Amino acid sequence: MTKSSAMVAGVGLACAAALYFATDVRSQDIRTPLPRTAKSPAANPSTPQKVALGRLLFWDPVLSGPKDVACGTCHHPDFGYAENRDLSIGVTGAGLGHRRRFSAGSSIPLVKRNSQTILNVAFVGSDEQGNYDPATAPMFWDVRAKGLEAQAMEPLKALEEMRGRTYADDKAIDVVVARLTEIAEYRRLFAEAFGGTRPITATNLGYALAAFQRSIVANNAPFDRYMRGDRTAMNATQLAGMRRFERVGCANCHNGPMFSDYKLHVLGVPDNAALPTDPGAEGRYAFRTASLRNLRFTAPYMHSGIFNTLEDVLEFYDDVDNGGGRRGGRNNDRNVNVSREELDPLLRQLRGVDDDDFELLAFLDALSDEKFDRNIPKTVPSGLPVGGTIN
């Protein structure tokens, strides 16, 4: 490039940046920033006592069957409260993140889906205007639970996650409540948080865990600051990526402040070869739209954890855009159990996705906020290792 052509290019980029910064995207009703504070359901208003109790419970392996795994084992702040593994190892595992392995002789299978982050889980269910009902927010990849209070209890009952073979799934919650009741410090903390003569109940356990999860927010990403009026928060490349994000059709499903419509869609994402096929919700390989928030910290991606990088994800969508073929990232194909005709119509409307689209990747990075609560308690009331067997 000559000096004069470089000057022209520089002027063009500057003009483009000025145009983007001068445009008030909010007037176009494209997206809204995350709220500065999270709502709680009427039945479970947040209090400092509930949040503090929930944090201890989140890190205490006493909630698991063999007492060797905690919620925080697979939702660790080092990985954006997700896990840098494709599929989690729950009970009878040892180590943290990608170094975690099953203990010798374990007969427990892998957790069948990728561990989603709890960062900003308080805002799950938000629509394009930012409205949501925390009591009915759709949880899990298959939306099988509504609200964090219900979601928090499910891993305690799951064989692969926290129950193991210690007791039957229909006994899990009763056993955990009984264990907590035997610990004097938990009796005191539950009484402070909930009052009453018998405060340690299954309901209050779910309430405390949910209250803590709602406190883990990362809602000041460059995108949020830009949408609140700081026109220096996003650069020209990120703004160009935002326009591409809308133009190619990503916003058809990834919309609202959480960049998810929270609906089920059939994308044909490959199964993870380490497990049997996963037909998802309704038996049609449908999964909930993932949020695009904090992707910088939460690889790998998709329900099967099949894609290590965002470039792999874009390559998969590029493959769909180009009519199929054998190009889908690590697994080199769409899911063999999903025909092109069964793919969601919105997916088939994607146009122009490119796996090396630096503008689009720059915009996705603008949705990450690195300033979030990473505090881990030094001890937990049970006296067990914090986070379970992770060292």
Strand order of the largest sheet: 1-2
Mean pLDDT: 90
What count of helical segments does DSSP give? 13
Superfamily (CATH H level) name of the largest domain? Cytochrome c-like domain
Q: What is the first-to-last residue Cα distance?
A: 53 Å
CATH topology of the largest domain: Cytochrome Bc1 Complex, Chain D, domain 2
Describe the structure.
The protein has 391 residues and is mainly alpha-helical. The protein folds into 2 domains: 12-35 and 219-365, Orthogonal Bundle (Cytochrome Bc1 Complex, Chain D, domain 2); 48-215, Cytochrome c-like domain (Cytochrome Bc1 Complex, Chain D, domain 2, Orthogonal Bundle). The chain contains 13 helices and 6 strands. α1 packs across α11 (236-247), α2 (48-59) crosses α9 (202-215) and α11 (236-247) packs across α13 (358-365). It is globular. The relative contact order is 0.17. Residues 1-29 and 325-332 have low confidence and may be disordered.
Which short descriptors sum up this protein?
about 400 residues, mainly alpha, Cytochrome Bc1 Complex, Chain D, domain 2, 2 domains, two-stranded antiparallel sheet, two-stranded antiparallel ribbon, 6 strands, disordered N terminus
